[in-house]
């Protein structure tokens, strides 16, 4: 019966919990409540795993692994407030703008990860990849179905939006996605150029202005200009090498004598 009711945690644990309940004299209500708590906890874990799999978020990019000290202009409490997800209720957007290597992808992915744990559905993609998929859907006359499929996600994270050039792909499909989700579903965007450089993305200036207008209307904008992670790592390695005492020929001779 428990299998038919799709209660796998009940099925797995009821005998063990029943033995404990009998030995400790639990009332029936407590016995059922404990089993229900286990079932709900397992369902939450399965849901989170399922939604993480469909989200395609980059591995390892969580709030726990983000170096907030390297970006003092981005306080952790502000990011944690965004991770709570209240802004999704009104179809708000999130835009991270900064030079390459400052953690834009990491912070958006970390927020996406937290939102999934809070019960939301998130989808991460490179913008150029999504443009190609929507382009193919338009050619096959199924663009509306492809856009409707994306509607099930509370948040779509578009990474590297400024790498989607209008001379490489007809990015008007990207505008259709933005217009469709306006004040309805949320978009998070990572861009390494300010809005003034977005005219390379869309087919014409009017579409660029319209897209930016829709995105920023209910948006939180994160300014993330700083030294890149790669530059900081290179500087740290160079400093470490400079501080390492050089091995002299006398040292080598002494080692040989030892």
* Anisotropy-based shape: globular
Poorly predicted regions? none
Return the average pLDDT rounded to an integer: 89
Number of helices: 10
What structural class do the secondary elements suggest?
alpha/beta
Strand % is: 5-15%
Nearest-angstrom radius of gyration?
Answer: 26 Å
Helical content band: 40-55%
First and last CA, distance: 77 Å
Sheet with most strands: 5 strands, parallel
- What letter string, H or E per element, gives the SSE order? HHHEHEHHEHEHEHH
Order the strands across the largest sheet as they lie in space.
2-3-4-1-5
Number of strands: 5
Describe this structure in words.
- There is one protein chain.
- The relative contact order is 0.12.
- The chain has a 5-stranded parallel β-sheet with strand order 2-3-4-1-5.
- The chain is built from 10 helices and 5 strands; from the N terminus they run H-H-H-E-H-E-H-H-E-H-E-H-E-H-H.
- Helix content is 53%, strand content 10%.
- Helix 3 (76-84) packs across helix 4, helix 5 runs antiparallel to helix 6 and helix 7 runs parallel beside helix 8 (205-217).
- With 258 residues, the chain is of the alpha/beta class.
């Amino acid at each position: 019966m428990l299998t038919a009711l799709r209660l796998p945690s009940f099925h797995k644990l009821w005998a063990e919990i029943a033995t404990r309940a009998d030995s400790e004299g639990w009332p029936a209500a407590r016995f059922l409540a404990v089993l229900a708590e286990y079932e709900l906890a397992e369902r939450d874990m399965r849901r989170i795993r399922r939604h993480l799999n469909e989200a395609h978020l980059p591995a390892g990019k969580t709030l726990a692994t983000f170096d907030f000290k390297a970006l003092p202009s981005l306080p952790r409490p502000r990011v944690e407030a965004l991770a709570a997800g209240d802004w999704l209720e009104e179809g708000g957007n999130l835009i991270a703008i900064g030079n390459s290597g400052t953690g834009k992808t990491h912070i958006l992915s970390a927020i996406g990860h937290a939102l999934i744990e809070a019960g939301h559905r998130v989808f991460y993609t490179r913008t150029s990849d999504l443009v190609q998929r929507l382009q193919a859907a338009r050619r096959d006359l199924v663009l509306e179905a492809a856009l409707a499929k994306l509607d099930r996600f509370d948040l779509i994270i578009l990474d590297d939006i400024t790498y989607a050039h209008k001379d490489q792909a007809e990015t008007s499909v990207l505008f259709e996605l933005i217009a469709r989700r306006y004040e309805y579903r949320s978009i998070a965007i990572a861009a390494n150029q300010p809005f003034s450089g977005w005219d390379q993305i869309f087919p014409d200036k009017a579409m660029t202005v319209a897209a930016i207008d829709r995105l920023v209307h209910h948006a939180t904008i994160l300014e993330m200009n700083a030294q890149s992670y790669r530059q900081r790592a290179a500087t740290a390695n160079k400093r470490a090498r400079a501080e390492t005492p050089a091995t002299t020929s006398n040292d080598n001779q002494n080692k040989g004598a030892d």
